[in-house]
Design brief:
4 copies of one chain form a homotetramer. The first copy, chain A, is an all-alpha fold. The first copy, chain A, has a domain of about 110 residues: Tetracycline Repressor, domain 2 (Orthogonal Bundle). Chain A has 10 helices and no strands. The longest helix of chain A is centred in the N-terminal third of the chain and has 21 residues. The model of chain A has no long low-confidence stretch (mean pLDDT about 95). The interface between A and B is medium-sized, with 24 and 25 residues. Chain B binds a DNA duplex through helix 3.
DNA sequence: AATGAATGAGTATTCATTCAT
DNA sequence: AATGAATGAATACTCATTCAT
């Protein structure tokens, strides 16, 4: 339970794992990862006893970084639209700016081995997004019939789409980001 | 003059492969597949010389079935909205009704080994969707700034989202389907 | 037991086998051979029930051809030296002229599966060479202490060496052939 | 700091490989070899990453041992005849005394996968034999028309022949060895 | 007799994990 | 804690041979 001392090694392993998973998928050999991290094959297993643990570790690492990117200087007091726009912009920029981490995150979510702790590790973000959804409803901004989960799903679907377009066509990245938000808002909200 | 190649066996292999890929991912062993198909390990390779060929075969098989589901009784003469609604309903119903095939299709699309022939195997559908997109534009139904590809991406993103929701909550499947289309239409189309 | 009718097919298989064995060794797949012979995979096995049978068949085929090359117009009445020279020249020319068949013959001799019938199939040649060896001894032409088998071994060793040199350096093939025989004769025969 | 690579294991693998190759040819399964060596199947591959590497390793191992046997107490200052006789005796004794290693050596030489480094690994022996050939010529001991390579080929051909005879008829091994050298010398040299 | 589909045992190599140093 | 050698189960594909047509 006592986390091994050398935080640097742990981080090197995580970084190497992200790169390896991005390149070869989750099937990337642990030996590739340890080599890229500059540690011995066995050392990886003193930090992550199992490959499953390593994948979960990568997931939580990326999620934490992502939460930082999305919720730093979050305008909690501003309007719903502005808050949603903040989340949208930050998430979408992070995804387009870290394509490897983003791809790995999606891959891990499809994969079957995430623990519940990993899934709920980022409770702060979850709470914040919940609050945002609630405000949305309370202010009757939401098209009739749409639940909180529904809205979350739409936001997420259009975010992923937007990230893909931004990566594929980086010259028009900003336009994609803005257009995406407009499609989202007019799809979801009752009025502008 | 010899035993002719058995279409039934080919289909059994494809069906077994879809099930195995859905359960264990594309890494599912060919031996599992041949066993589930009721053929010898070697037989799989007389139908698909390579695992890559098998995956491509699965992809084309699913795509063909999907095209049949989506474009049978397609209302080519009806309005753009009705045509889009037809495609939406059929696709989303197929995905929710064939969750394994749907999941495998998505997995294969992420995978790196699709041949160009496989990718373009379903040219009829591609053409039909192109025609639909063109009508959309010509009738000035489209929100300013959205290209054909953009619309395609939005449609696809919301379809996938809707399928997920229908599978997760089958009781409200119809509502999800209808709501999804409304979100799509108000997100994409010019007012009224 | 009744040899199948079509002699042409049998020969095509033998010829294809020699080529395949020369190129890839005795491990060459029977399917390669049947394809090269222009027959179905199964057909090969109606002519040679087993791969072992095929290899034995190839051996006997080559041996028969070789015997024809060596003993046609054999000067049975001439001197020992002339007869030996005839055998030497014919064998060595055949080997240099048919490098594939020659290589395959050597490979099969190293291989463990030759039957006794194959080994003794060419009894006529064996008898003729035995007669030659006997004359050699009776005329006291042989260096003291050399048995018939010994002489046979020396002849063979130097023939193989000469064939290799002729193939490697075809420009001086004739010189190699002559020199080889001189080395042989002075190594084996009593001083004149 | 970890378990060091075990020279004993490497040698056990090489020895087992020689035995296996002698018995079943180079097609002998690596699993047979690892089992005979008393190591796990995977362990073989930490010492020889590839079967090709293993075969090359066996070749170099045998060559090194052979060089030791042939050139230990080599009479570099003695006459050409004595030096040649030394090489002849040592080589032929080694071959007759290590029939498995000898057979494997010949098999590997026929095989197509030797690296250049393997082929030239025993440069000391090659140099020594070159020096011997040169002395031979400089002292005009050689029958007219015979190049160094030619002599080398004759020596080799008669050595192989002699080894075969010694193995087949071990009771007269010494006689075969002596006779062989006499045949060689009178075949090659100008005078006794 | 001819065909080629069907069979399944066989094989080199990989890789997560353990363990001696 | 760190190392990397050792382990052995797992896997795609081959190929001689059989057999339905």
């Amino acid at each position: 339970m006592a986390r091994p001392k050398n935080e640097g090694k742990r981080n090197a392993i995580l970084a190497a794992a992200i790169r390896a998973f991005a390149e070869k998928g989750l099937a990337a050999p642990t030996s590739d990862i340890s080599k890229a991290a500059g540690v011995a094959e066995g050392t990886l297993f003193t930090y992550f006893p199992t490959k499953t643990d390593l994948v979960n570790g990568v997931y939580r690492d990326i999620k934490a970084e992502l939460a930082g990117a999305v919720f730093s200087s979050y305008p909690r007091k501003k309007s719903v639209r502005e808050r949603l726009r903040h989340v949208w912009d930050r998430y979408v920029d992070w995804g387009a700016g870290h394509p490897e981490a983003h791809r790995v995150l999606k891959e891990i979510e499809l994969w079957g081995g995430l623990t519940v702790e990993s899934r709920t590790s980022d409770s702060a973000s979850i709470a914040e997004l919940g609050a945002l959804a609630r405000s949305f409803h309370e202010q009757h901004l939401v098209r009739k019939g749409l639940s909180d989960e529904y809205i979350g799903a739409v936001v997420n679907a259009l975010e992923e789409m937007t990230i893909s377009l931004m990566i594929a066509d980086p010259v028009h990245a900003e336009r994609h980001r803005t257009l995406g938000f407009e499609v989202l808002w007019s799809g979801i909200a009752t009025r502008i």
